[in-house]
Structures are given as C-alpha cells and as structure tokens.
Amino acid sequence: MTKTFLFAFFILRLLNLSAQNPIVPAGVYMADPAAHVWDDGRIYIYGSVDESVDHYCSHRYHILSSDDMLNWTLHENVFASKGKDDQVPYSDALLYAPDCQY
User: Fold this and answer.
1) Best CA proximity match to 34, nearest among 62, 55, 57
2) Which of the residues 13, 17, 62, 88 could staple to 81 if both were Cys, CB 3.0 to 4.6 A apart?
3) DSSP 3-state assignment of 75?
4) Cross-sheet strand order for the sheet of 30-37
5) CA neighbor of 34 nearest in space, from 80, 95, 98, 96
C-alpha cells in the first residue's frame, strides 16, 4: 500500500499538475463570478479582477461572454472606479463581488 502511494505521489509530482480555469485566458485572474443569461441568449460572467499580491480585487471589472459555453470572449475593463473617465467619480475604492441587473 505504501509503495503504491509513493509511486503515485512521485508520478503526479513529475507531471507537475496544476489546475487552470478553462474559460479564462492565461494570465487573467477573475474572482467572485456572477453569471447571467440575458434576452440575447448569451451567458455573461461578471468577475472581480485579481491583479495584486498586496490586496484582493482591483479598480476594474472584466466580463466573459459566450453563445455556446465553449468559445468565450473576454471584455476587458468594462467598469472602473479609478482612472480617467471612470464610472464611479465619487470614489476610488477597490471593487469586489460584482453582479448585474437588467
């Protein structure tokens, strides 16, 4: 039993397995997703953008959308609380846990 466990452990270690989110492009980190299907039949996933090791979330949101849940489109920086022409002129606070209502 121990030999089998050790063998499996080393094989998995050699393969260097790591989990990835299959719909988010590499290098894009989205958290706190909220998904909705609107009248156009597309699914939209609204998510916080995690980009810093010093704090969670950021000052902007991204959206993922799909017609078939196989091919995804990333819509970057659709909402921001900081920067030129941001959508929240009264605050530069971090954004987190997005959602949408229509």
Assistant:
1) 62
2) 88
3) strand
4) 30-37, 43-49, 60-66, 72-80
5) 98
